[in-house]
Amino acid sequence: MKTALYILVAATAFGLTPITTQADSVALIQYDGDRYFGNKQLNITHLSSMTRQAAAQGAKIVVLPEGAITGYETESQVWANKDKDKVDSSRHYRDVREVAERVPDGPTTQHFLRLSRELDIVLFVNLIEERDGRYFNTLAILEPDGRVQTYHKRRLWHTDEHYATPGNQSLVVNTKYGSFGVLICYDAFSNKLYDDYKRQGVDNIIVSMHWPTDVLVTSTNWIRSRAKRHGLNIYVADESHSDGTGLYRPDGKTVRDHVVPSGPEGDQIVLVSTDNSFEG
User: Fold this and answer.
1) Phi and psi dihedrals of 273, rounded to 5?
2) CA gap 74, 77 in Å, rounded
3) Which of 5, 45, 96, 196 is most buried by its number of CB atoms within 10 A?
4) For the chain, domain boundaries
5) What SS3 state is found at 259?
């Protein structure tokens, strides 16, 4: 990207000491929605504060991690569609209809769309979408002019299979700050999906991620290798507090500059200058 950007990885806005950044930045929000599984309103309140904090630091694009709004899964709970047979009997399943919403008419999309307009930012919001009786793991991209685009997760993890229908289309988001291919978590482990974006002339990928902490090393190594193999700059916003968030470059380097811890649960802010992005 020719525009000088900074990536602000904001973990929590509460008690956060403001950090000076350059204008025109991308903010990757690191936030564990599983802590408040099913409590959408509390998660939205926290994430809205964090989004405002990011915008105050110069962010023009803000990305929420997978599961940030609803929670993705816990050791004891998982979302499921009661009309489907794939239910994990070892965990209590919650009816996905408790949290699923239509896009763009649902209250979560409308709330963050208002925030996008107010702050003049592009927002990437992960949520569970209901459409014509089916459910999707969706990344809604909300722009200040009111435009809404949606990307549906294409490669479902076993957690998603309890309720979700897989998507079947790629999405390139073109902004005045750069163009980004879009992936959600397990999508990012598919060479085919990266190849598809390269054929479309994309050099930068945004991933809304929910990495299990116990496979973090394996997962980050895989993303690092995909960045190198496909010649892509991969920007990951992860809910995990295990430092998986950051920029994965084609030269094999992972950039997470200026790590600022915040809070007792591993929350942090990571500033990464996209001057460090690799242009082959």
Assistant:
1) -75, 130
2) 5
3) 5
4) 6-276
5) strand
CATH fold of the domain at 6-276: Nitrilase/N-carbamoyl-D-aminoacid amidohydrolase (3.60.110)
DSSP 227-257: HHHHT-EEEEEES-SSS--EEE-TTS-EE--
Q: Which two tokens stand for residue 243?
A: 């430092």
d(CA 165, CA 128): 11
- The tens-digit pLDDT sequence of the chain (280 residues) is 544 455 555 444 444 444 444 445 778 888 899 999 999 999 999 889 888 887 877 778 889 999 999 999 998 999 999 776 555 555 678 999 999 999 999 999 999 999 999 999 999 999 999 999 999 999 999 999 999 999 999 999 999 999 999 999 999 999 988 899 999 999 999 999 999 999 999 999 999 999 876 666 777 888 999 999 999 999 899 988 776 888 888 999 887 666 656 555 666 666 666 555 656 5
Are 206 and 178 in contact by the 8 Å Cβ rule? The answer is: no
Q: Which of 150, 148, 138, 139 is nearest to 117 (CA)?
A: 148
CB 103 within 8 A of CB 129: yes
* Pair type for strands 77-80 and 134-142: unpaired
Q: In a 3-state reduction of DSSP, which class is residue 93?
A: strand
The whole model's pTM is what?
0.88
